[in-house]
Prior knowledge:
Elements: H1 7-11, H2 17-22, E1 36-42, H3 50-63, E2 69-75, H4 99-107, E3 111-119, H5 127-134, H6 137-140, E4 149-156, H7 163-175, E5 180-181, E6 193-196, H8 206-227
Parallel strand pairs: 1-2, 1-3, 3-4, 4-5, 4-6
Helix pairs in contact: 3-8
Amino acid sequence: MAIQWTRRTxxxxxxxxxxxxGQTTQSGAxxxxxxxxxxGVACSPRRDRTTAAALRACLDxxxxxxPHVEVELVDLGGMKIPGDVAAGVPLAxxxxxxxxxxxxxxxxxxxxxxxxxxxxxxxxxxxLCKAFLDRWMEFRSTFALRNKVGGAIAVGAARxxxxxxxxxxxxxxxxxxxMIIVSEGGPTSRLGGMLVSAKDDIRGDEAGLATARxxxxxxxxxASALRAGGLSS
Length: 233
């Protein structure tokens, strides 16, 4: 039986996971849903550093939401993503462009959630993150990412180092794609994952890691609810 979605049911989706995966229907059959994949994209020019580590914690939590959830980390470190292409500037002869393969990955129908992670540079996202999101211009003509669930993580050098503004600017870009943006969920329900990197290490930031884990679960929770009979992606 399809779920009838209203604003109230969407707001109350935090309590929906037992309905989706922990209970059976009145007929005794377990509810089913399409495969669900959540992708985390680390937008740091430094490959496999703290932004990627924060996303791993986030994705591990998402995967733990249920056996139906698959996750993948995409690390943009070392990749070439020319942002000017979004403005119609052609690639230079021989110039490398790694975005087309990433675009195909993100628009795949099994992808229900996308989590963007960025280091904080001067209170905002990295240049690589901005170029990556600018290239999402190709999704806008058909709104290929519409109703996919979006979340964001920011890693800074200080507790109040610009993480909130970074999350807000990432959210703004995702909203332009008609995505469904979530916070880390209750009980704190802040903007998303906010972490502090001390000497290139986030392992000591338990509070920040908790926000990353909560975000991962929240993205999996809402994406699962949508796949079980709500909005189509």
